[in-house]
Amino acid sequence: MQRPVFAANWKMNHGPTEAKAFMRTFLAHYARRPDRSVLFFPSDLAFAAVADAIRERQDLLLGVQNIHWEDKGAFTGESSAAIARDAGARLVLVGHSERRHVFGETDEMQARKCHSGVRAGLTPVLCIGELLAEREAGQAEAVVIRQLTAGLSLLDPRDVAQMLIAYEPVWAIGTGKTATPEDASRMHAVVRRHLTAMLAEKAASVPILYGGSVNRGNAATLIAAPEVDGLLVGGASLDAEGWSSIVRS
Ligand code: PEP
To answer: For residues 36 and 55, what is the distance between their CA atoms, to the nearest angstrom?
Structure first.
């Protein structure tokens, strides 16, 4: 994947109609650039609208926000990795803080989702990050290493080398509080050291994205910070012009 990587997580926003309008504006503002990757994670029900809008733009990649870890079965309301792949997804967000803290998902579930995603040919973006209380207790590094170790535990190192990691401190998500570039770099370096212990020189191929209240005003500074290979953006990715200005930063 070409770095820097800019990933839009729309969460539970933009239905098919809004998604189509968004893509019309975004495509008018963002011409293909070979020096970066742009990823979209729309809601499942807007997925086809976005896939259709970017059919001619192979530089833009599409992922789903969540999968179930089982291949198929009686799991009402869920989609498997194979279903997401069949619909055209290339990537999947795994372990987003809202899945962990709103829906009570465990580290073990993230491991199974990563494994299931890889088996179906999806690239997982494993999200990790500490709560404010954990940070204040001096546990930020231990928490992200625990989440990383657990989330990757069922994968072959060759598969880990193909995926992406997103460091998203929970206290910065949707709060308007952003990690400083120094903080982000320091935590990304912790992640990189851990990956290097697992993968040796192949660790360098894993993009580590920062997420947490990124906006048009701070994106350029964050993306320029050492060890920050890209940005995962929620709220500020919902406005097509704003998002196009972030991906051009
Ligand atoms: C996110 O949803 O991953 C995120 C980082 O949200 P926001 O940019 O709104 O903080």
So the answer is: 18
